Amino acid sequence: MKHAPATTQRSQIPTHAAILPSMDILKGKTAIVTGAASGIGRASAMLFAAEGAAVLALDRAVEVQATAAAIRSAGGQAIAVVADSSAEQDVADAVATVLQEFGGLDVCFANAGISGGLVPFFEETAERWREVLNINLIGTFLLAKHAAMHMVTRKRGSIICTASVAGLRSGAGGIPYSASKAGVISMVQTLANQLTGTGVRINAVCPGLIESGMTQPIFERARERGTENKIGQLNPLQRYGVPQEIAQAALFLASDAASYVNGQAIAVDGGLSSSHPIVIGRR
Ligand SMILES: NC(=O)c1ccc[n+]([C@@H]2O[C@H](COP(=O)([O-])OP(=O)(O)OC[C@H]3O[C@@H](n4cnc5c(N)ncnc54)[C@H](O)[C@@H]3O)[C@@H](O)[C@H]2O)c1
Description:
- The protein is an alpha/beta fold and 283 residues long.
- The protein has helices at residues 39-50, 64-73, 88-102, 126-154, 175-194, 216-225, 243-254, and strands at 30-34, 54-59, 77-82, 107-110, 157-162, 200-207, 265-268.
- It has one domain (24-209, 243-263): NAD(P)-binding Rossmann-like Domain (Rossmann fold).
- The protein has seven helices and seven strands.
- Bound molecules: nicotinamide-adenine-dinucleotide.
- Nicotinamide-adenine-dinucleotide binds next to helix 1 and helix 4.
């Protein structure tokens, strides 16, 4: 079988990744989305709202207000909260706000994260480990905990956590980042079992390379060098992804269509994590 040459063109990204007609998949539901000022979180908050959910969009960046404003101007329901997703009081307050403003909590997307950079082994520091684990893993735990404390009383709810292909195997992130994302996957498995009998589901989504705020430097460097068409060539789809493609997976996990999906880590990565490294044409 002949393989097409590796090129990533924006035109290869299906338009339905960005635009699908609303089917009211989350009609009547309420959701919290963290990291909602940018990238995957922003796209998910917008998609959840377009599918009928009332959304609390949380981010430490004030730009989260623009996400909520965009939802409202499109006719949706949203409030913005500027807060630190790794601070327990901020998280507890956000859950209390969504209960007070929207009367319940059905969906929680713990998505905020930082990369920590690609620091070589011997230059890595304990401070950076603490910062990355604090936001990516402990912050995710805190939102899952405070959301679940409410959800178990109603015997339903869906918690989604953003992990990464970096949590599945090496080569996609720095040392603390990759460990934090493996931790998210492990935590999701453990919490699914801790929540036995409650009716609350918890899953992780593992994005591959997505163009977002976090990966902007990669894209900018490639565009400067004229090598943008090489980005993402390592996966079988031979392209990078866009935030809406992760938002669609989160929407599925949030929805009743995923009613029997629990304790899983679902890769959305163009097939990147499906293979051992190979050199195409040399098999
Ligand atoms: N972009 C990728 O290729 C990729 C791949 C795998 C996983 N991810 C994960 O996806 C998630 C979303 O990242 P993104 O790619 O959309 O990047 P992004 O930088 O565009 O968005 C991340 C958002 O999280 C917010 N945030 C960070 N720390 C926070 C804190 N303590 N409190 C509140 N908000 C905070 C940031 O302000 C930002 O708005 C992250 O968990 C990231 O690790 C991204």
